[in-house]
Amino acid sequence: MSIENHTDKQEFNITVYTENHIGLLTRIAIIFSRRKINVECLNTSPSEIEGIHRFNIVITETAEVVRKIAGQIEKQVGVLKAYYNTNQDVIWQEMALYKVPTDVIAERAIVERLLRENGARAVVIRKDYTVFETTGQREETDNLIKVLEPYGLIEFVRSARIAIIKDSEGFHRKLQEFEESEPHDEVVENEFLSSREKVFTM
Amino acid sequence: MLTKEKQAPALPKEAKTISGAEALILALLEEKVDTIFGYPGGAIMPVYDALYDYTDKLNHVLVRHEQGGIHAGQGYARSSGKVGVVFATSGPGATNLVTGLADAQIDSTPLVCITGQVFAHLLGTDAFQETDILNITTPITKWNYQITDASEIPDVLAKAFYIARSGRPGPVLIDITKNAQQQKFEFTGYQPCRHIRSYKPKPSVRQEYIVQAAELINGAKKPFILWGQGVILGSAEREFKAFVEKSGIPAAWTIMGAGALATDHPQNVGMLGMHGNYGPNVLTNECDVLIAIGMRFDDRVTGRLDKYARQAKVVHLDIDPTEIGKNVPATVPVWGDCKETLPLLTALIEAKEHSEWLGQFRKYNKEEVEVVIQEELFPTSEEMTMGEVIQQLNDLTAGNAIVVTDVGQHQMVACRYAKLNHTRSNITSGGLGTMGFALPAAIGAKFGTPDRTVVAVIGDGGFQMNLQEMGTIMQTGVDVKILILNNQFLGMVRQWQELFLERRYSFVDITSPDFVKVASGYGISGRSVSKREELQEALQQMLSHQGSFLLEVMVTKENNVFPMVPQGCSVSEIRLK
C-alpha cells in the first residue's frame, strides 16, 4: 500500500468532496494548471449526500506532488475533503460511445459476438448509423475502438473516469464532524506520525 | 443563493426594508470597520450613495488609484491587526486591485475588497466596465464571491470577514452587481459568521506532537529557532518570547517576522535569507534541530533547497498544514495556531542556556560587523550610505517607529538595520516584492495606528510608482514621514548586473523629478540632503514636523547590499563581499 519510490510517476485518483458552489471548479482546476500539471480527466457529480458534490480527477504524478496538490485543494474554502489514491486502491470505470455505419456493420460484422466479447450494447440503431456503448477500464474501451475501426468508426467519445475508494466508509460521518463547530480530533490526520490509514488522506 | 452554514440565534431585530448598498454599510459597521480605502465609479455608485449617510461612523479615505487603495488597506491591516476594507468600481477599478490582492495573498494579509459590478442581466455581454474579476482574482484570493441578489449581502459579508481574518489570514473579494446594490429587501439583522463546514481555519492541536517536539528540543545540542510572520498574525509575541527565553535558543527572523521579538533581544541573532545576517545563514547548516515557527521556507530564505539544513531535524509549527513539508520535510509537524502550541511546548521544554552555541553566532556577527556593517553604518567614504541613514533614524526614533519599506536595496538595508522595539513595526512587501507598496501602505498604517510614528523608507524608483498617493496625504492630512533613499539607480537590479552580468547596466539608470518640488505641489513640506553634516538635523526636522514630510537623502550610487546568498547557492555559501 505504501508508495516507496517518490520519484516514480503513476496515475492517481483524486477524490474531492465539495459544496455545490459556482467557481469551485475553476479554483480547483487552476491548482493543477499553475503547476503545469495536465489533468487527464475530471468528473464532477453528486455524491452519496444531497448537496455535496464529488470531483474525481486523474493525474499522472509522483506521490509527493499529489500529496501537496491534495493539500492545496483541501485548503480552498468550499472544499470539505480531498483524498488521493492509486489505481489499486479504487474501483474505477469509464464509459465510451462508438458510432458506426449501420449498413457496414450489419453486412460485415457478426454483431452479436462482437457485442458479447466486448461487453458492449447497442444504444441506438438507425438506418444510417448505430451507437454502441461500453463501460470498463481503459484497455476495454480502447479494445472496442480497434475492433470497430475496420467498419468505419464515425465518432468516438469516452467519459471521464469515476472511481469508488475501496476502503472508504463514505462521507456521512465525516460530514457530521465538519458540521460541528468545534474541531474534531479525527478531522486532520497527521501523515508523518500517525500510522498510515488504508486510505491516504490529507 | 448562499446558504448560511450555521445558524446563530436570530437577533431580536425587526425586519426593515433597505437597499443592498445600505445592508453592506450596516454589515461593515457590525464588523466594527472604522476606515475604508476606496475610489468610486459607475458600478459602485449605489454603495457610495449609501455611504453618504454614514460618514459620521465610517471614515472613507479617497485614494488616487485603486492600487494605492488596496496597499493602504494592507498597511492598515498590518499595523492594526484588523481587517483592511477596500472599495473599487467594476472593470479597471477592480483590475487595479490585482497587484494588491496578490501581495496580500502571499503575505497573508486580511482584507475584504468590495467591487461594483455591472447589472446582473449584463454579465457576460462585454458591457461597459465589465470585467470577469472573479475569475481574474481566483488564484490570488483566499475566497471570492459574486452577489447578484441583495438578500445575500449580510450573510456573504459575514462569511467574508470570518474567512479573511481567521486561520491563516488572506484577502477576500466580494463582487456586487449594481442591481443587487440598488435592490430593496427585508433586512432582518446581521449575524457574524463563526463556522463554515467546508472551511477549517486551523487544525486541532495534538499533544503527542508537542511531546515529540519537546523531546527533540530537549535533546538538542545546537537548536536554532526560525520565526516568521505567523507569530505576529497569531498575536503570539508574548508566548513566543516566553518560549525563546526559557529555551535559551538563538532565534532568527524572516523579513515578514521582523519585530515580533525586539531587535536588541540578546537571543535575536538576526535576519535570515539572501540578504540576511552571516551567522544565521551559515549556522542553519550546522544546527541539529531547526525549530520553524510561523514561516514557510521561502526560496529567498532557504537558498538552494537540496543543501539546506540537511543535517538538522526539523520541528515545524504552522497554522496552515500545507506549509508543513512543502519545501523542507518536517521531522515533527506541529500543526496549529502558535498561540496555542507555543505555551504547550514551553511547558515541556527544559530551561537552558546555549551560551556556547550563541557564542558561535556572535563570532560570525563580529566578522560581519568588521567586513560589512561597520562601513555601512559608519562609513568612512565621502558619500552617504543607506545604512547610515537607517542608523541615524534608529537613534532618533529609539526604535519605536513603524518602518514601512518599498522593494529593493533600501528594503534590505532598512530591514537589516532598523531597530524595532515593538511588534507590527515592520511593514513591507515580502513575498510579492511590490515596488510602489510603501507610500500607500504607510498611509494605511497611520490610519490603523494613529498614535505611532510611521516612516516610509522608499527608493527613488519605487516612489515614482505610486507617488500619486501624495494627493491622498494632501486631502486627508495624514501624517506620514517619507524618507527617500535616492541612489539614482534601480539599485537591486543594478547590483545583480554588476555582480553577475559584467556590469551591463541595462535600463537601471533612472531619472527622478525634483521630489521636494513635487511634494510641494501637494502641499507637503520637504527637503533634500546630500551632505552627511545635514543628515541628522534633517531627519530630526522630518520627525518633529507637524504633518507629513518628505526627506530625500542622496546616497552613494553604486553600493551593494551584503552579505548575499547568490541565487542557486546554499545558505552556507553566503558572501560577505
From TrEMBL, chain A:
Domain ACT: 13-87
Protein name, UniProt field: acetolactate synthase
Pathway entry: Amino-acid biosynthesis; L-isoleucine biosynthesis; L-isoleucine from 2-oxobutanoate: step 1/4; Amino-acid biosynthesis; L-valine biosynthesis; L-valine from pyruvate: step 1/4
EC number(s) per entry: 2.2.1.6
Gene Ontology CC terms, in alphabetical order: cytosol
Protein family: Belongs to the acetolactate synthase small subunit family.
Organism domain of life: Bacteria
Pfam families reported in the protein's UniProt record: ACT_AHAS_ss, ALS_ss_C
Keyword line: Amino-acid biosynthesis, Branched-chain amino acid biosynthesis
Catalytic reaction annotation: 2 pyruvate + H(+) = (2S)-2-acetolactate + CO2
UniProt-listed PANTHER family: ACETOLACTATE SYNTHASE SMALL SUBUNIT, ACETOLACTATE SYNTHASE SMALL SUBUNIT 1, CHLOROPLASTIC
InterPro entries assigned to the protein according to its UniProt record, in alphabetical order: Acetalactate_synth_ssu, Acetolactate_synth/TF_NikR_C, Acetolactate_synth_ssu_C, ACT-like_dom_sf, ACT_dom, AHAS_ACT, AHAS_small-like_ACT
From TrEMBL, chain B:
Catalytic reactions on record: 2 pyruvate + H(+) = (2S)-2-acetolactate + CO2
Domain Thiamine pyrophosphate enzyme TPP-binding, first and last residues per copy: 406-553
Statement: the UniProt record of this protein carries the keyword Manganese: no
Entry protein name: Acetolactate synthase
UniProt keyword annotation of Cell inner membrane present: no
Record-level Gene Ontology MF annotations: acetolactate synthase activity; flavin adenine dinucleotide binding; magnesium ion binding; thiamine pyrophosphate binding
Residue span(s) of domain Thiamine pyrophosphate enzyme N-terminal TPP-binding: 19-134
Example of a GO cellular component annotation carried by this entry: acetolactate synthase complex
EC number: 2.2.1.6
Entry-linked Gene3D superfamilies: 3.40.50.970, TPP-binding domain
Cofactor(s) essential for the protein: thiamine diphosphate; Mg(2+)
Family membership noted in the UniProt record: Belongs to the TPP enzyme family.
UniProt cross-references to InterPro entries, sorted A to Z: Acetolactate_synth_lsu, AHAS_TPP, DHS-like_NAD/FAD-binding_dom, THDP-binding, Thiamin_PyroP_enz_cen_dom, Thiamin_PyroP_enz_TPP-bd_dom, TPP-bd_CS, TPP_enz
SUPFAM superfamilies recorded: DHS-like NAD/FAD-binding domain, Thiamin diphosphate-binding fold (THDP-binding)
GO biological process annotation, one example: L-valine biosynthetic process
Record text on cofactor binding: Binds 1 thiamine pyrophosphate per subunit. Binds 1 Mg(2+) ion per subunit.
Chain ranges of the Thiamine pyrophosphate enzyme central domain: 212-343
Keywords: Amino-acid biosynthesis, Branched-chain amino acid biosynthesis, FAD, Flavoprotein, Magnesium, Metal-binding, Thiamine pyrophosphate, Transferase
Pathway: Amino-acid biosynthesis; L-valine biosynthesis; L-valine from pyruvate: step 1/4; Amino-acid biosynthesis; L-isoleucine biosynthesis; L-isoleucine from 2-oxobutanoate: step 1/4
Pfam families from the UniProt entry: TPP_enzyme_C, TPP_enzyme_M, TPP_enzyme_N
